[in-house]
Amino acid sequence: MDLATLLLVTFVAALVTDLATGLGALPFFVVPRISEKFNGILLGAAAGMMSVASLYQLLGEGMARAPGWQIWQVAMGLGLGAVFFYLATHWLEDDRFDIGNLRETGGAGALLIVAAMTLHSMPEGVAIGVAYGSGEADFGLNIAAALAVHNIPEGVAITAALRGKGASTWACLGWAIFSSLPQPIFAPPAAWLVWISEPLLPAGLGFAVGAMMFLVTYELVPEAAKKAGKSRSSIAFAGGTILMLVLVWAVGGVG
């Protein structure tokens, strides 16, 4: 497809994954609160789903694109992605950082919840863009579908957390969608970069994997274990992994 079509398709796919996050807030219009334990289980499942999307799809495709000694490109990208997310995470903890006056209205905890979710949407947007930029529409669809499904429990998690801070359900819905806004913002530029320079694809895929797996191990897994306990969160992680593998198989596998 030509560049204009590629960028439009990439943007629409990433926008759908963004809006999917808002679906996680819908149950709260019927059931006002979800228990901490169930919230942790959802986070554990989301971690398992993201791990499959990262390691099985993105990393697998990156290694296939960089055979032999060129595998260093994937490794370099992976390391850079992890370092980027590490530095950005610590930047968010600065007391001077705020989003929409959320630090004052919901407290530092509410701010960090939204900021962390928004930050980790960046590598997801890059992942969608890199996948579509590879020129394989099915691969792009697989990644976008995986992340859209993964975003729903994230929407539940962010809504449950903000409801506990006193936010209304409508506000939670808005913040959930806002938290995934980097996906349609970052996806088209990533697709464009890969489209004009195909050799960047292995490193780009590695970067997305490094950032996403840092998120899983630094934030999602510890938070799930804290809320649901190690046993329940581990079972949820395994369940999320199996569910994502089934979904990947259903939409055509890798590439």
Structure write-up:
- Helix 1 (3-23) runs parallel beside helix 5 and helix 4 (102-133) crosses helix 8.
- The chain is globular and about 50 Å long.
- The chain starts with a helix and ends in a 5-residue tail after the last helix.
- The longest helix has 32 residues, at 102-133.
- The model has no long low-confidence stretch (mean pLDDT 80).
- It contains nine helices and no strands.
- It is mainly α and 255 residues long.
What's this entry about, in short?
The protein has 255 residues and is mainly alpha-helical. It has nine helices and no strands. Helix 1 packs across helix 4, helix 2 runs antiparallel to helix 5 (137-164) and helix 4 packs parallel to helix 7.
Which characteristics define this entry?
255 residues, mainly alpha, globular
Low-confidence stretches: none
Task: Give the overall shape, derived from the CA principal axes.
Answer: globular
Query: Helical proportion?
Result: over 70%
Order of helices and strands: HHHHHHHHH
Q: Report the oligomer.
A: single chain
Topology:
Layout: H1 3-23, H2 36-65, H3 71-92, H4 102-133, H5 137-164, H6 169-179, H7 182-196, H8 201-228, H9 230-250
Helix pairs in contact: 1-4, 1-5, 1-6, 1-7, 2-5, 2-8, 2-9, 3-4, 3-8, 4-5, 4-6, 4-7, 4-8, 5-6, 8-9
